[in-house]
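User: Hi! I have a protein structure encoded as tokens and I'd like to know what sequence might fold into it. I'm fairly new to this, so please keep things simple.
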């Protein structure tokens, strides 16, 4: 059985690694001139680590990732709202997105990787399975589901970067009025960071000015970063199905979500392993992945409403009071709600591919 994976990002490469593990012949088609990953840090949550373990890549990720012994949530003035002293390598691994991408890329032989290979349709693809992992602006999704809405602006803009350091910091999330910041330290002293702010799309904003009054070291991280990437935050309204004929949507092409739970890349890794575990049964893949990812999609939206979207001083003070009243053990259990996923059983061997007729509607 042959699969063509369209898109060479984290989700696409993970799908290729996973499908090869269960015996599929795979090609990865990337439209760019080279395989690579932009952005800054990624938190490899326990669910994502289990997916990577199934792929045989856990040890390499742990080697490149950063073990931490503390973390939590802070207010913009630096006060701890929730302090989690036991957040360590067994819980969350912080690493650069490019390092995670590299782990997946090195797990594939060069002969299955094709660059400068843009795919705009599936009719001429010689494959039993096509994996559409071509991102939030997926060309294949638009073609297969012409009535489905495209990405929607989520009301916030974000900046990301890697401060050269050296710094010695815990993993933290900071919540302030209409804004959010995150810190993911790397093992070599560098720090991946992100900022997000409620704002009109394409607004002319200066992150140094907006976050200059937040607690240390946030202003220093921003000021010392040589290259800052900015993008407006979009999400994809939930689809009624992730499959059409021999095509399976994966990652942001299927369920792009706001980043306030840090689960976007983790969901793509789950998708990849589940697709392989389903042995080509696309109806089962859809039935397993759609409820799971859409629950996390809703959770991310909820986290935004009670996080970055709160701007009035009264609402922010009440939110902070609730956070401080929550015991650390309860907070950890809340995090586990989204990261307790396990790799599905794999009863279906590679063989016949069960196709699904095209859908196209969305569930509002």
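Assistant: Happy to help. Inverse folding works backwards from shape to sequence: for each of the 364 positions I chose a residue that suits the local structure. Here it is:
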């Amino acid at each position: 059985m042959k699969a063509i994976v369209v898109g060479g990002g984290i989700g696409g490469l993970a799908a290729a690694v996973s499908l090869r593990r269960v015996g599929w012949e795979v090609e990865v088609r990337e439209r760019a001139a080279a395989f690579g990953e932009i952005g800054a840090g990624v938190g490899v949550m326990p669910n994502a680590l289990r997916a990577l373990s199934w792929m045989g890549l856990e040890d390499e990720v742990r080697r490149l990732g950063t073990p931490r012994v503390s973390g939590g949530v802070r207010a913009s003035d630096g006060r701890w709202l929730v302090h989690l002293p036991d957040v360590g390598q067994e819980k969350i691994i912080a690493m650069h997105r490019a390092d995670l991408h590299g782990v997946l890329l090195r797990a594939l032989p060069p002969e299955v990787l094709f660059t400068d290979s843009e795919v705009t349709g599936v009719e001429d693809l010689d494959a039993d399975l096509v994996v559409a992992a071509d991102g939030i602006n997926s060309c294949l999704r638009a073609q297969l589901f012409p009535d489905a809405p495209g990405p929607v602006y989520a009301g916030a803009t974000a900046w990301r970067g890697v401060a050269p350091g050296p710094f010695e910091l815990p993993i933290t999330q900071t919540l302030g009025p209409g804004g959010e910041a995150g810190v993911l330290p790397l093992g070599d002293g560098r720090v991946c960071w992100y900022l997000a702010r409620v704002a009109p799309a394409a607004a002319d904003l200066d992150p140094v000015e907006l976050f200059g009054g937040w607690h240390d070291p946030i202003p220093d991280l921003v000021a010392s970063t040589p290259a800052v990437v900015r993008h407006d935050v979009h999400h994809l309204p939930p689809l009624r199905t992730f499959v059409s004929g021999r095509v399976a949507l994966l990652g942001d092409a299927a369920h792009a979500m706001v980043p306030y739970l840090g689960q976007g890349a983790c969901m793509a890794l789950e998708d990849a392993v589940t697709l392989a575990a389903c042995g080509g049964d696309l109806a089962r893949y859809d039935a397993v992945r759609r409820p799971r990812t859409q629950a996390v999609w809703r959770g991310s939206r909820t986290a935004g409403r009670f996080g970055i979207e709160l701007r009035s001083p009264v609402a922010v003070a009440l939110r902070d009071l609730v956070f401080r009243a929550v015991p650390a053990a309860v907070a950890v259990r809340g995090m586990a709600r989204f990261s307790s996923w396990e790799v599905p059983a794999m009863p279906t061997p590679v063989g016949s591919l069960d196709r699904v007729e095209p859908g196209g509607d969305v569930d509002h």
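A useful reference point when you look it over: The domain at 2-339 is CATH 3.50.50.60 (FAD/NAD(P)-binding domain). Feel free to ask if any position seems puzzling.
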